[in-house]
């Protein structure tokens, strides 16, 4: 078994809701509420869920772009939560992030060479401008972009090319872990495939580990080794991807899988249509958070929160039905 | 022979901008029969939304202008009729729902007021009757407690509920054609499933035709009877839904289908289409797909192919669709990895 590169233990991230003239905290948005998982070196862990489930907050809290409310993040055996800013900066070299929106995440006033080269300068990985440019050229080649583009600005590129620049920037410092937060959802279908292929190639070439956050289950299935499903700040199921798609244990995963429209008109799916909407994370339902929408809910579900545990071969789930 | 409900012939809608003429829709033909769902699929900038706005005559002018073509709806050319006549059709015979329900609902009116507006305008009933009908519509689209919801404002509803309100509004006057422009793109997948199911059941009970515009081939497969695939302002393939998915004739359609990961099939690598969509300011000569097509030959760069019947009403705009068939028979891929793509 491969070693864990990243371990997340009982991670919580609450955002205060403030009101009144004294800005008193009147409630908490429990965006991430006590989740634990590990990412093995060299694997891709998919983190999937609907909007507001806390998947992006999880990614940002791991990098400490947001400070966790409580819990632990252990990277290469070292807890990153109590590191001083200087030490944190050093560790960020090993943990990089790619954002969803390639239009918003690149500084419009910087050239490609500056965008991709900035992390090299910050981490003092290059000594001269020539060296920096040489490295940038190499990195651009890795992501399939010609070096002629080095002195251009982000607005001159299409969405897919911008996402390549985003990937190049993350790649520049030779990281071990890349957190990819919906890296392809803003892209057109044909360009999505290019970026997915690129991410897979880079993983092979540089031995990268990915935490791949997305809402699109078919993309997650394609790229991941294991998949964690989130609902309202909790992981409800986590297992090997083949197992998850063949044998989903949690009723939420089952309905999520059945809801995906497939590009095959002859396939008539037995669809589990969920009632209602995702409840607010400010005041999540009692007991199991999925119980108001769950087609299989029974009497303990509204009262007791189900334990998140291993049901064999690393197939984790949190559901009372499984203990019945 | 069933009569066509809508027939679009050689539609051209251009935008006159400072940078030049944007040929957003550049010669589009298709028809919609009563009660059927036509899926229109394509990537951003292919002209699918502008086509639908042209049918509704909602293209902002200037800078946009319907340059040529005909849109025959029940024997009338919608391009030629007066704005007054068009207003009677819009929201009544043909109505439309959009991708982002929050921006298409007015935040300062209750949802009831907004649904009633169309009913009062087109059906000429009084306020009380309109309110009764509005509540009935909200119930039909599956909104719980419609008597209460009718007096709420859009911000009090979730995204899925807002899209249901949009659908209630669009269907309140019993349209013969509903144009749905990416109606589920902004929604989560479990909510998307709810809305698609709702649209399918309403289509049956109302007997209306739907023009479903989307970039998602999964949605297309789910709801369409026939499909038009658009690329760079033109229809490049047009067929009944099963034959399209079984046997795509255009290299672009083939590429689209292979570039999405499938749930029931594992592949190591996706067959990505190289490059990106050409700018509408500067479309290539000849076939507009020639910059990305692995089969492109000399003829493809010189002459634009016609939308040709490849047999059984399956139309494709490609000089080399027969060669593609041979390649498919041999089980080969056409999109090879080229590493550096740009």
Short description:
Chain A is of the alpha/beta class. Chain A contains nine helices and twelve strands.
Structure characterization notes:
- By secondary structure, chain A is α/β, with parallel strands linked by helices.
- Chain A has nine helices and twelve strands.
- Chain A has helices at residues 55-62, 85-92, 112-122, 129-142, 159-171, 189-206, 217-223, 241-246, 251-259; strands spanning 4-19, 24-40, 44-48, 70-75, 78-79, 95-98, 177-181, 209-214, 226-231, 234-240, 309-310, 316-317.
- In chain A, strands 6-7-8-3-9-10-12-11 form an eight-stranded mixed sheet, with helices on both faces.
- The radius of gyration of chain A is 21 Å and the shape is globular.
- Chain A starts with a strand and ends in a 7-residue tail after the last strand.
- The model of chain A has no long low-confidence stretch (mean pLDDT 91).
- Chain B contains 13 helices and twelve strands.
- At the A-B interface, helix 5, helix 6, helix 7 and helix 9 of A face helix 7, helix 8, helix 9, helix 10 and helix 11 of B.
